[in-house]
Amino acid sequence: MSSPPLPAHSLAEGTVFVVNVIHAQPGQQEAALTIIREIVHYVAERRPEFLWSTLATSVDGETVVNVEAISGPGDVETFFTDATFAAKFERLRAIGRYEFHVYRARDLVLPRLR
Fold first, then answer.
1. How far apart are CA 16 and CA 80, in angstroms?
2. Is pLDDT of 11 > 90?
3. 109 near 7, Cβ under 8 Å?
4. Which of 16, 23, 33, 108 measures 20 to 30 Å from 95, CA to CA?
5. Is the pLDDT at 8 greater than 90, yes or no?
6. Residue in 43, 33, 34 with CA at minimum distance from that of residue 79
C-alpha cells in the first residue's frame, strides 16, 4: 500500500533564488566561506533586493554554497554594477572558481502532519 503524496503548494510567483557554488582549491574552503560571507553581508547592508541568504560548506571540504533569495531575476546583474561588490568576487578567483544560476521556486513541499 503506497502512501499519498506529500502536500505540495504551487508557487506560481515563487521566490527568486541565486545559487552560487564556489569550488575552492584544496585547503581553501574556509577562505572561500570567509569571502562569500563578507560579500553577502555587504549586499544585505546595502541592497533592498536582498531578502535572505543561507551559506553552507560541503562535508568533503571542497565547495561553499550561497543560496540567496532576491527580489527578481535581474538583481544579480544589478549587484555586479557595484565596483566594490565585483572586486570582492574577484578575490574568489584567487582561491577557486565559482558559478551561479538564478532559479524561481515552483513548489514548496512540507512534511505530512501526523
1. 17
2. no
3. yes
4. 16
5. no
6. 43
Report the CATH number at residue 50: 3.30.70.100
> Does residue 102 contact residue 16 with C-beta atoms inside 8 Å?
yes
Q: How far is CA 103 from the centre of its chain?
A: 10
CB neighbour list of residue 91: distance below 8 Å, 6 or more residues apart: 35
Number of domains in the chain: 1
Give me the sign of the Cα torsion angle 13, 103, 32, 57. Answer: positive
Angle, vertex CA 11, rays to CA 5 and CA 40, nearest 5: 115
Q: Do 16 and 106 meet the contact criterion of CB atoms below 8 Å apart?
A: no
| Cα–Cα nearest to 91, from 44, 42, 47 | 42
pTM for this entry: 0.84
pLDDT value at residue 70: 93
What are 59's three cell numbers?
A: 562535508
